[in-house]
Amino acid sequence: MKIETMLSKLGYQEKIELYHQLEMELRTLESERLIREKLDEVLECPYCHSRNIRGHGKYKGRKRFKCLSCTRTFNILSETSGAGLKKLELFRQYARMALESIPVRTAARTLGVNAKTITTWRTRILTAFDEENGQKL
Ligand SMILES: [Zn+2]
Q1: How far is ligand 1, taken at its centre, from the CA of residue 66, in Å?
Q2: Domain coordinates of the chain in residue numbers?
Q3: Which member of 67, 89, 106, 119 has the greatest number of CB atoms within 10 A?
Q4: 36 or 48, higher pLDDT
Q5: Is the pTM of this model over 0.70?
């Protein structure tokens, strides 16, 4: 059955419940993904964007880095704390829109986000929905 057909059969209360469940799962997913991305990619200084960085021990269990260009220290979360959270908030807003079957283009325009990004989010939401539904069957 198509996801859209399944969604259309859900009642209002069920949609709300699904949304809350999705939101919790996706929040975890999103922060894990952000952290993994930061670990995998070649790190650069969040202040001056220099790639001339070195490991600088650990702080509260998190690896620290020191920029050899501007001498500031940072960890993998330094960069995501601002931009990352804003994106996460947009993602949550889109999750709500997806449950209301709002088209990708409309959502992209409303949120001011690239349509390609919305498509990626949509796939992730539908996958989560699929897994959730599979468990119940
Ligand atoms: Zn720097």
Answers
A1: 8
A2: 3-40+77-136
A3: 67
A4: 48
A5: no
